[in-house]
# Entry
Amino acid sequence: IIARLSNMGMSRWMTIAITYFVFVSIFFGVLVVLLPLVWQQLTNLFQELPTMLRKLQHVLLLLPQRSEIFTEQQIRDWMALASKELGSVGQYLLSFSIAQLPNVVGLIINIVLIPILVFFFLKDKEAILGWLASFLPNRRPLLSAVWGEMNVQVANYVRGKAVEIVIVGFVSYIAFVVIGLNYPALLALAVGLSVVIPYVGAAVVTLPVLLVGFIQWGWGGEFFTLFIVYSVIQALDGNVLVPLLFSEAVNMHPVAIIVAVLVFGGFWGIWGVFFAIPLATLVKAILYAWPRPKSRTEEVNSTDVLVGE
# Structure
C-alpha cells in the first residue's frame, strides 16, 4: 500500500502516516465494537452455565426412553461427574487468572509498544534492512531471490488468512443470528479464529457450537438446522474458499496446497498443518530461485545471438 501511494507521487512520510492511521483506526474500531459484545456474551455464558447444565441433564434423561443403551443412573453419574469437573475448572480458571496478572500487564505494554515499533519500522525500513544486509556476503543472488519471493508470498498468505477469518466469522455470525442461536458473536468469533489452524481448529470449535445448540433446543428441528448450516459453512470454507483464496494469494494450485497440508502435517503434526502453506511457499521460492542449467535450445539461441553480434 505504501509503495502504491508513493508511486502516485505522495511523500513517504505522508503515505506511512495515512496507512498507519487507517489500520490503527480499523483495528481499535473493531476492538471497541466487538470486544464489549463478546465480553458480555461470555459473562452471560458463565452466569447461565448452571441452568444450561440442568437443561442438558433434562434432555439427556430422555435418552433411556428412546434407547436401551443408556440408563437413567448412567446419565445421572455422568452429570455428577461433569458438575464436579466444572467446579474444578472454575477454581483452576480463578487461580490461573490471578497468576496471569503479570502477563496481562505485559500484554497491555505490548499492545502499546508494538504499534510504535511498526511505525518506526515502516519509517526506517530501508535503513534497517540495509543494516541487516551488511552482515551478509555482497554476492547473494539465491538468498536475494528467495527473500524477494518469500516477502511477497508470506504477505499474500497473511492477507489471505485475514480475509478468510473475516469471511468465515461474518458468515457464521449472520447464520447464528438468523437461526436464533445463543451467544452468536462469541461463537462466530471462535469459528472465525479456528481457521488459523486448518482442520484441527474447526474440529475443536464444532463441539461448543453444537453443544450450545443442543442445550438450547434439544433434539429439535432447530438443532438439526444449526448442524446443517454449520456443516455447509465448514465445507464451503475448506473445499471452496481456502483453495480459491490461497491459490490466488500465494499463487499456488489448490492441489499443491492440499498436498502441502498432508505432507507437512504428516511430518510435524498440528504445527505442520499450521505452517503448511508458508513452508510450501518457501519450497516454491527456493525451487524458482535455484539456478537451472541451460537447455540445448537456450544454448543455441545464445550462440546465435553472439554470432550475430
